[in-house]
Structure formats: C-alpha cells, structure tokens
Amino acid sequence: MKQINGIAASSGIAIAKAYQLVEPDLTFEKKKIDNPNDEIDRLEAALAKSKDELEKIREHAKKEIGDEHAEIFSAHLLVLSDPELIKPIKDKIMTENEMAEAALKETADMFIDMFKNMDNEYMRERAADIHDVTKRVMAHLLGATFPDPALIDEEVIVIAKDLTPSDTAQLNREFVKGFATDIGGRTSHSAIMARSLEIPAVVGTKESTKIIEQNDVIIVDGMNGIVLVNPTDNEINSYKEKQAAYEEQKDEWAKLKDEASVTSDGSHVELAANIGTPEDVEGVLNNGGEGVGLYRTEFLYMGKNQLPTEDEQYDAYKSVLEKMGDKPVVVRTLDIGGDKELSYLDLPKEMNPFLGFRAIRFCLENEPIFRTQLRALLRASVHGNLKIMFPMIATLEEFRQAKAILLDEKDNLLNEDVDVSDDIEVGIMVEIPSTAVTAKQFAKEVDFFSIGTNDLIQYTMAADRMNEQVSYLYQPYHPAILNLVNNVIEAAHSEGKWTGMCGEMAGDSIAIPILLGLGLDEFSMSATSILPARTQLRQLSKADMASYKDTLLSMGTADEVVAFVKEKTEQ
C-alpha cells in the first residue's frame, strides 16, 4: 500500500479500480518493412477499432449531451472513411515500403499543415479533426491504450494529470466514482466539477499518474486529501465504514432540505448553487438550493465544433429557469479565455491569458456572439426569475457598454413582438481588485454584485491559483481579501442593493461565519455544500459575527483570522 497526499477537493470516499486518463506515448522508431500487405492489414485493423470506438462515443454523447454535440464525432467518423486521407497512407506503405505508423504520421501531418494554412475557418477546423482521429489510429497501431472517458462502463476512479472541462463533460456519472489529479487546487475547474458531479476528488497530488497504474485498487478520501494505492483488506474495510458514516451524515443534512437558511438569531440568508449545465439543476433542488447564484454558460460553448445557436441557448436557459420556478437564477454571460479555450475560435495565444483577452473583453470585441447570447437570455426571461451578470468587469465603461447592448437587444425583440420580462436585474461579477475598490461608484449603476473570489484572490495576491509553487499565497482569509469583500458589501447596501458570492469561498466552513458577519446576502456554492452550510448557519448568531467584524478586518495575517474564527465558533 502507498499513500499519496493532495488537496481535498470534493467530499466523500470512493473505492474502485484506477482508470488512467493519460495520453499514451505515441513515439515510434521509423523503419522500412518487408511485407506491405501485413502493414495494410494492421492499418485496416486500427481503423476498424477506431471507428468502433467513435461510434460508441457518438452514441454516448447523443444520450448525455444531445445530437448537436455528438456531431463532432460524426465528423471524426467521416475522416476515418475519407479515401483522400486513407489512400495516400496505403500508397506510401505499398510503394515506399513505409511502416503503417510512419505512413499515417507523414500523411496526417501533410493534411494538418495544409488545412491549418487555409483562409476558410471551416477548413481550418478540419485540421483539429484529422489530428484527433489519427492520434487514435496511431495508438491502436502501437498497441497503446487510448483513454476514452465516455467509454467507461465499470466503476472506476479516474487518474489524470488534470481534467479539462471537456474531459469532465464526457465522464459517465454512473461509473466514475471519484478522481485524483496531479495538479490543481480547490478552485481549479476539475475540483469544481467534482463537487458539481457529487463525486469525491483529491487534486494537486503531483505524482498520481506516475505511481498509480491501470487497474490498481484505489481509495480516494476527499475529506482529508488522501489517495491510497492497493490498500490492504483491513484498510478497505475501515474506509467502507467511513464511507457509510459519511452517507449517514448526508442523510442528517438532507433533513434540512426544505428548511429556510436561518441563523440562530433569526437572520435569513440565501443559499444558492453554482451550475454549469441544465442537468445540474436536479442537484440544486435535491440539496435544497434557494436559487442559482452562478450559471456558467461557457459549458454551452465547449465540446462542440461551432458556436451554439440562439435557439440552442434559449432552450438551455429556458430549461433551467422553468426547473427553478420562481427561485432566482443568476446567469453569467460568456466567460472564455484563461484556462477555458474554444478550439473553433481563433483566440490569440497570450503570455498571461488570465489577465488577457477574456470574458467581457472578448464579448465586447465580438458583438455578434455576445448579442446572440443576450437575445437567447432575454427570450428565456419570461420563463422564470432571471438575473444577468457580466464577468471580468474592470471599468464602469465596460458595464455601461455591455448593458447598452443588452437594452438594445431587448428593444429589438420587443419590436419583433417577442415577450421579454420587465423585471431582469443586471449585475456584475466582482473579481478584479479595481472594481472592489471602486464598488461605491459601481453600486450606483448595477442592480447587484456577485463576488468571484476564485479570481479576486489570485489577482489581489498576485498568485496564480493553478501554480503549486505559489499556492501558499492563495489565502481566502487574508485581511486584504476580507477588506475588499467588506467594501463591496457596504457599497451595495448603501445603495439598497444586494451582494452575493459565487466563488468557492462562499461554501467554506471558516469563511461562512466571517461572511455572515460582513453582511453577505447570498452564498452561492457547489450544490453539495448547501446542506452542510445550512447546518452551520443554524448554529451561528449573525449579531455575534457582526460584532467581530472590526477585529477581523484589522488583523495582520490569514492565520490570525482562522485562529480567531475557530475560537469564537467552536466554543
């Protein structure tokens, strides 16, 4: 047995076999061959295996994410059957005595380079299709295992260097019981998705992919940040008991599902959830969510080979609003860039993408894309309690420009005799320090604030939240962060507006008492964090927490803050 330590990212305990979601080594030593017919047979077998896999993936995609998203795999199947690609590979084998691997690589590279340099965007996209498809064929020629999360059909724990949003979108919730990654922190996308999927996860292990082998028996302890490799029977039994105890605890929390989020002295706050897809709403309602505090709409744009249409977006927004009834749904407009890329958009490569051309900056420069999303949102607004917020706002001019476009599209729809709600609040995410500092000016014009602490912390502390070497500086409880949060809340309240928080800090057991005392109105978190947070709030007095406010804001270090909160809340 070996123990690997990491960061506890999503609570729970999982016990299953390891599934290595790691790209195989596709290098080979080039050599001439004696029997071209044998190489042709090898190539045909690799093509047949690849087609069979892609058929299964396409069917899974249709079932899980819809026909439109599955079309990318139809395109991949067409590539595998295209004589324009396959014939030159076979010709190289037959006439130049090339091994199948070399013939495949040389032909594929030629086509990829050709398509990449074309002016037509559609043709440039074909380069990515050829790259993806031929990589799969190459893996089969080399006898390597090509990882396919969509094809998992038994209970496993996924082991990966990291999980991208598109990786997690393919995971089969029925069979993936947990995961462990080499990199990442509590606020990385893989960790956030794990909490959304309600599966245990440990991230930032640094060495899981090196130590754990395919089919090793794994225990993931998402509460304590521990991964056990090939544990003994006694250890498995011990963790099964812990697993059962955790399930009992969840049953206790579930008793509060339909209760209000009220403190011990009778103050109510709103506990909402962060979601990425319409399917996530079920988890919000099952966990007693009082609203959706953040709908990350970029997942509508991912895992596709083209932008979603206005009608596709309308259907998604309408679905969420209808399922939530009269409960508020805060939708964040498109936030791509940083670590969220779209293969079909030719975005510039940047030295520091987190501080670059992303979110509202991209939308204001690409108005047609932005207007399509806003039209879809406005059309859907009549089906529920919609609130719209713009991400990455740094200046008042940006907010004014974005809101003007929104109002222009509202007028356009009304002129087309399309119904639009008259009661849509328009707010911003506060994730840039300049916005937090000048919150008083913003509060005069916005309807609400939602504090995105995941980015606000890394920007304030100048510490990349994905970089383990500076992870010690990612400090949610640092007095600088608390003072910025307090400034935003006070600015909003001075104008009769409300403030929410949609960063992971909102569901943190140390942060909750602090935020309660600062007067935060809405706490939005992973759905699975709602009931534990409600349980905690019922034991806290808002008046007591507010009386500690000045003391906390004047402290010098995060450690002092944590020690003080523990002393006052664990008596």
What would your notes on this structure say?
- The chain is of the alpha/beta class and 571 residues long.
- It folds into three domains: 2-22 and 148-243, Phosphohistidine domain (Glucose Oxidase, domain 1, 3-Layer(bba) Sandwich); 36-141, PtsI, HPr-binding domain (Enzyme I, Chain A, domain 2, Orthogonal Bundle); 255-569, Alpha-Beta Barrel (TIM Barrel), CATH 3.20.20.60.
- It contains 23 helices and 16 strands.
- An eight-stranded mixed β-sheet has the order 1-8-7-3-4-5-6-2.
- It is globular.
Short account of what is shown:
By secondary structure, this protein is an alpha/beta fold.
Strand content: 5-15%
How many domains make up the coordinates?
3
- Euclidean distance between termini CA atoms: 39 Å
Low-confidence stretches: none
In the CATH scheme, the class of the largest domain would be: Alpha Beta
Overall mean confidence score, pLDDT: 90
Helix % is 40-55%
As a whole number of angstroms, the C-alpha radius of gyration is 26 Å
Shape: globular
The CATH topology of the largest domain corresponds to TIM Barrel
State the major sheet: 8 strands, mixed
Query: Count of DSSP E strands?
Result: 16
Q: Structural class, judged by helices and strands?
A: alpha/beta
CATH superfamily of the largest domain: Phosphoenolpyruvate-binding domains
Strand order of the largest sheet: 1-8-7-3-4-5-6-2
How many distinct helices? 23
In the CATH classification, which architecture of the largest domain applies? Alpha-Beta Barrel
